[in-house]
Design a protein that fits this description.
The chain is mostly helical. It has helices spanning about 5-20, 20-50, 55-60, 60-65, 70-90, 90-100, 105-140, 150-175, 180-195, 205-210, 230-255. The longest helix is centred in the middle third of the chain and has 38 residues, at about 105-140.
Length: about 260
């Protein structure tokens, strides 16, 4: 009897919820996100008080409260990687494929579960850190933002979407590499290492780096216009298109390779 996609999706959801690593990772995402925001409020307010006139003009309270995304993207990336690689590590993938011989259906269900969880968790985290951060800035007597300010809501919603795209990038890497350490090392290189050394790359790569995670895609989290990224939603869309292309490769190799 063939398995419907809804059955596979339900099975993957139950499997996802039953893993202790799922709840530890999501708990770590919340704890680190809120913790970093609370710890960074006072230094952030002081940077405005002691800043020059130009620094005060460029001071962006919205971005300041969302800066924890830099670490949050790694944690949600761990979640995306483990959804695939933990089954290879334990041998459960053979059982999963026996129950669902249509491999594209199994991987599609994993992608759907991770996308839904990452989107909800990312949006909830972004709204929480924004509200906490702005309350802290208001208490410190420095400029603060509300969701009604220009580009503030866009930055918060865009931040949640950004984290969801990173989670899908991690699923693709986990499927292609099939090893937790290798997939996580590649993810760190993509979101942290390459952006840190982008100045050494030739100018003809500038267009590609405009779409790179933590560069073009993350520009959406700022409300002060960045002349290098005047259309941040297009940058995020380009980043999303790159992840979709990588997922397509993941589907192909998942279909063709032995377990």
């Amino acid at each position: 009897m063939s398995t419907r996609f809804a059955d596979t999706l339900r099975s993957e959801w139950i499997k996802f919820c039953s893993l202790r690593s799922t709840w530890l990772t999501l708990g770590g995402l919340v704890a680190v996100g809120l913790g970093l925001t609370l710890l960074s409020m006072d230094p952030g307010a002081q940077s405005y008080v002691t800043g020059t006139a130009q620094e005060r003009q460029d001071w962006d309270p919205t971005y300041r409260s969302l800066m924890m995304y830099f670490i949050a993207q790694l944690i949600i990336g761990v979640l995306g990687v483990l959804v695939v690689t933990s089954e290879y590590a334990t041998g459960l993938m053979r059982t999963s494929l026996s129950a669902t011989p249509r491999r594209h259906r199994l991987l599609g269900a994993k992608v759907a579960v991770v996308a839904a969880v990452a989107l909800v968790a990312g949006q909830a985290l972004m709204f929480a850190v924004f509200l906490i951060g702005q309350a802290g800035f208001a208490a410190a007597g420095v400029p603060h933002a509300t969701l009604g300010d220009p580009r503030a809501l866009s930055a918060v919603v865009g931040g949640g979407l950004y984290l969801a795209v990173i989670a899908l990038l991690a699923v693709a890497l986990g499927t292609i590499i099939r090893a937790t350490a290798g997939a996580l090392a590649t993810l760190v290189g993509i979101v942290l290492l390459i952006p840190a050394v982008d100045g050494i790359f030739p100018s003809w790569l500038d267009g590609l780096l405009d779409l790179w995670p933590t560069l073009g895609g993350a520009a959406l989290l700022a409300t002060v216009p960045n002349p290098d990224y005047p259309q941040p939603w297009l940058n995020l869309a380009g980043m999303g298109a790159g992840v979709v292309a990588l997922l397509a490769v993941a589907f192909v190799v998942f279909e063709r390779r032995d377990v």
